[in-house]
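Researcher: Quick one. two chains, 988 residues in total.
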Amino acid sequence: MVDLLLAVRGLNKQFRSGTQSVSVLSDLSLQLGRGESLALTGRSGSGKSTLLNILCGLEKPDAGRIQVLEEVFDSRKPAGSRQAEARWAALRRRQIGVVFQEANLMPALSLLDNVRLRARLAGQADDKCEDWMERLGIGELADRYPDQVSGGQRQRAALAMVFAMKPALILADEPTGSLDRHTAEAVTRQLFDLQARHGCGLILATHDAELATRCNHHLDLGHQPET
Amino acid sequence: MTLLAALFSHYRRHPLQLLALATMIVLATMLWTGVHHLTSQARASLDQSESAVAERQQVTRADGEPVSVRDFVALRRAGLCVMPWLEVASPGAGRIVGVDPLAAACFDRSAKDNEPWRGELDGAPFVDISEAAGLAIGQKGQKDSQGVLSLLLSGPDSGSALPSGYRIAPFTVGPDTGELGESFLLNLDALGMLVLLISALLLRSVYLLGLAQRRDSFALLHRFGVPGRQINRLLLLEIMVLALVCIVPGVWLGRWLATGLGSGFGRALEGLFDTPLYAGQDGGWLVPVATMLAVVLVACLADVLRPLARRLSVAGRGQSLLPALVLLAGIALSVWASALAWLFVAVAMVFVAAGILAPFLIARLADWRAGGEEDPLSRWRHRELSVLARRLALPLVALQFAMAMVLAVQALVTTFESTFDQWLVQRLEADYYIEVPEGADASLAVDWLSGQQELAAGLWHRVIRGQATLMNSVGESGPVVDVFALGPIGPLVTGWQLFESVGAPWQSLAEGQGLMVNEQLARRQGVTVGDTLSLKLGHKAIDFPVLAVYPDYGRPAGEILIPASALPTDFETGFQSLSISPGTLSMETVTSGLKQIWDVEQLTVRDNRAIESLASAIFDQTFLLTRAMTVLTLILAAIALLLMGWVFFSTRAWYFRLLVVWGLPRRQAATQLTRLSLSLTSAIALLALPLGVWLTWILVHRINPLAFGWSLPMAVYPRFWLELGVLSVLVGLSIAVLMRRQLNSPASAPESASALSGGER
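Model:
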């Protein structure tokens, strides 16, 4: 195994609605090394987004142990909630880049300002931001606002933001779900190219089986037990 | 599910919006109906008073005692056609007038139009005298409830056979106030209009927000084959039903509010213009319901009904030149206008321009600050502020107007109270006030008081009241003015504040070198110090130089102040009194001495401190309505901004959450949120400040002299500014607190549909 980036063991998550309880993640374990990619597939509601949210600390699991780089979060040895939140925030700020299906940008800022904001939050110098935009083919759109560009260009800007922060791990939740096939292919290609070149880990939630085959590992959450 | 149910489902999803809309309609209707109810009643009372007492005379007792039923019987037996007129105060509703229909029969029927008591006595204010008498007896012991009986004479020549012990006097409800009463009511109308405008802005803002959220549903229905016109018709039906459901209880609450404030307002009207507030002239339900329905429909559906207006408003966005020109023109008009109507036009122009410019200014300023920021996070916060200022423009402007109105009214009322208190203390310098009984020789009292060693010199004076006629330059009679003659002129009056005067004015007055005039007379006749007034005080006209102009608040009549020694012997004295500060001498000694020299058993002695507190109470009542209206409007505006801020922030919650996703600790994201909401509400409070100070100036220096006949000094109260600043901070903090709750709950996607295509910027 290459350098361990992420290790998850015995992860459980249930959602309660009134008196009913639905288990979306049950005793889930996985590992990811640097430069590796993992595809998460499964039908809608199978827990893909929930797992990604848990892996970046936006949601809490009911049980389980998560290790990201040197940080360990164990439900059996809970640290103070505020302290854990601060550690997760620090990881998201500097190490974990998150890309959603849409609305990854601040509408009140230009594309370049969005990239700069993300880089600055990660503690990176923002002088490389324009380079990243050039590399992703949106250099000439730097001063445009999100509502002035296409969906594909917005997703490229979102990728530029992620790479500008130089993350160790990228969590992408159906990043091309709202794009046409041609644009989706271009964005995906750039995502895998850059991920491979910079050696960061990638967890990609997708409905696209073909896309899933391009990842090193594949986890189908549709086969998770359900109660 | 029907189409209407599908449309209305938005409010099932967002019940708070429906509640906000309903609350605003109810409160706006209540406020405006309350004011409309009172002003209609007051306006009808003014008309009623004028027509009822036009050129009419009454019979009074020569000994000054009030007339009674016995006098009525005696006069009718003597063959005189007199009609009893019994005024009774009805708590809350105003005055009721009891008349005797049988006695009214001897009045000339041809003048029916001028005799509103004629015909059916079917309700307030004119009722059968037995009903009014019953009311007076029933309320005996209650404050202000005793009936006042007058005996009206049928014609000007009927007094020829007047029995001895009676005399004829003009029957007046109050002095001729010219257009002052009407101006006062116009002021209230204007305040009501401002409340209506603020309410319309708030309604519009909440409704448009809902409409924006429903636009996708409308588009979907349109794609399903529902014509756009049908959707518009259903929206019209929806808002009409909502309006009617809310307006009816609003009108009821407004009438309840007016009833609650009625007695105070009536006392204010009497205090200011000596005009009683008669009961029953309430303007009905139709006008408030129709007005509010029109306001709600125009405020909510103007864009739907008039697409052109919408296009114009969109095209005009961002253009500040025209509003800036309107602002300047409004300010110029406010300086030069000499009619009250034009002043109101100026106020409207300035408010409209300020309303358009304020959100534009905040947005521009925020964009400018964002442009100069190096830190991307600060740049984002300023850009968000710009978006908020534009999206929350309507509730922000409503809050700005409400704050400006509160600032101005508070400053006006506080200035008035402090000025009035100071003036009242000067006017009631003496401790006691003794009425000179009818027929008693006041000069005997003057001699007796002069001889009292213990009574310090100058701590008493005699007051003679009556009337004089102003003569114009060609010797023709002009208006009648009140005469306020004093003697001796001493420390009880020499401390009075004067607006303008010659050197040593009181000494000049004591030496009979001229007279002083009150501000009302000076303004109305254009009199200044150094002018000469020709007055007919008895049968002869006398010229007096004007020595000073003195303030005389709270009544409309013109008045002259002259030394008693300057009155001619044939001056017809209306009323006399003595003002005394007894010092070491007991008041009992004074009253017993005066009883002895006048040979009377009873004296009317009044404690001036009690009069002072009564007068202050009357003026408190005067401004109760305006204060209540402004404070309620401010609360309404603050709640509306709070709701709107909350709802709109919800549509931006995703972007705050995005900051958290990017690793900004929640606490810091919440701090950004707080800074943003505080910046927004503080900016609008700051912009309300100059508008409020300008409105104060307009009220004090321009509207007040035209509406009341007297002016007030211009004062500003930074404490009110601070209070409003604290209020704006509280509203900002409340929005932030409400939003923090949303920040802590998971949001998987942005709420607003526009965010999917990049969101608004």
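The interface with chain A takes residues 375-377, 379-380, 383-384, 386-387, 654-655, 658, 660-666, 746, 748-750, 754-761 of chain B (CB under 8 Å).
Researcher: Thanks, that's what I needed.
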